[in-house]
Amino acid sequence: MAYITLTTENFDQEVLKADRPVLVDFWAGWCGPCMALAPTVDEIAAEQDKVKVGKVNVDEQQELARQYRIMSIPTLMLFENGEMVRREVGGKSKEEILEMIGLRKQPVRT
């Protein structure tokens, strides 16, 4: 499944009322790290059906960026049952994102 472009108009329905976890990527077109992360987020959106993936362009959706106190991008947030349960800032590997959304277990460190 492809990612969903999130706006103030559809955020409530697509994220807060979703029937499964939602990974939200806050990004901007001028942000180099956001552009580097985009293919990974797109890949996860295409491969995973246990999580919905949405993207918020902070330049176009400033109200959402303010509401969720986005100070640095990229910022990834995981929502479950209408609540934000995890927040990560900066570039992440695919494995780190999959671990964030609960699809990979953290390695056991001894």
Descriptive account of the structure:
There is one protein chain. By secondary structure, the chain is α/β, with parallel strands linked by helices. It has one domain: Glutaredoxin. The chain has four helices and five strands; from the N terminus they run βαβαβαββα. It has helices spanning 11-16, 32-47, 62-67, 94-100, and strands spanning 4-5, 22-27, 52-57, 75-80, 83-89. The chain has a five-stranded mixed sheet with strand order 1-3-2-4-5. The N and C termini lie far apart (37 Å).
Which descriptors would you attach to this protein?
single chain, 110 residues, alpha/beta, Glutaredoxin, five-stranded mixed beta sheet, globular
The SS-based structural class is alpha/beta
Q: At CATH's second level, what is the architecture? A: 3-Layer(aba) Sandwich
Please tell me what the overall shape is. Answer: globular
Query: Please, how many helices?
Result: 4
Please state how the strands of the largest beta sheet are arranged side by side: 1-3-2-4-5
How would a crystallographer describe the biggest sheet? Answer: 5 strands, mixed
List the helices and strands and how they pair.
Elements: E1 4-5, H1 11-16, E2 22-27, H2 32-47, E3 52-57, H3 62-67, E4 75-80, E5 83-89, H4 94-100
Parallel strand pairs: 1-3, 2-3
Antiparallel strand pairs: 2-4, 4-5
